[in-house]
Amino acid sequence: AEAWHFIAKGPFLSGINMNSTFIAASCHDRYVYSLGRKEGGVAWNFGAGKVMIAPPVFITDPFTNKTYACCESEENILFAISDADGTEVWRIPDGGKPVCLDDEPEKPDIHRTSIIAQRRDGAIQAIGFTSGKPLWEIPAGVFSMAAQTPESPALWAVYSKGAVCQLKRKQ
After folding, report:
1. Strand-pair partners of 39
2. What predicted TM-score, i.e. pTM, was given to this entire model?
3. Would you call 27 exposed, middle or buried from its count of C-beta atoms within 10 A (0-12, 13-18, 19+)?
4. Average pLDDT of the chain, as a whole number
5. CA 10 to CA 12: how far, in whole Å?
6. Average pLDDT over residues 49-59
7. How do strand 164-167 and strand 152-159 relate by DSSP bridges?
């Protein structure tokens, strides 16, 4: 039996993503929707003005406990949307597809969290979670794919020649 349903003004072609509270989906009506998992009501919607090509990825900063729904538009703009209320936190042209989160200490008592994204040209870049500013990048052509496994917080990358490696920070 159906528990609930939701109808938008366009199709959901890019899939969904979930966290413990919400289901997030990118719709071809140019909105990103966050729906309550239990009742299906709209928690928020974000009018991106662009069609999103993939479902939002929920990323939580372990230091601030803030969660963003990150998604890439068909124009290759990476959006960070506050999971609390659906407001835009930042956007980056040529931002790429969000892959995972990386938290690293800048200094012993100050931490920096970044979102790792893979751009369409194949480059991998780190984007400051709070600032939305690019922090570093690995050029295109070095990797063909990047991913993070639940068992390991490290970023795994596949070289274009077929080798697999794990990227780690210097200790």
Report:
1. none
2. 0.76
3. buried
4. 77
5. 7
6. 83
7. antiparallel
Whether residue 148 has pLDDT greater than 70: no
CA 161-164-165 angle, to 5 degrees, is 120
Residues 6 or more apart whose CB falls under 8 angstroms from that of 2 comprise: none
DSSP letters spanning 34-94: EEETTT--EEEEEE-SS-BSS--EEEE-TTT--EEEEEEBTT-EEEEEETTT--EEEEEET
Q: Quick count: other Cβ atoms within 10 Å of Cβ 112? A: 18
Evaluated on CA atoms 80, 47, 76, 146, the torsion sign reads: positive
How far apart CA 158 and CA 91 sit, in angstroms, is: 27
CB contact at 8 A, 80 and 71? no
Which one is predicted more confidently, 86 or 14?
A: 86
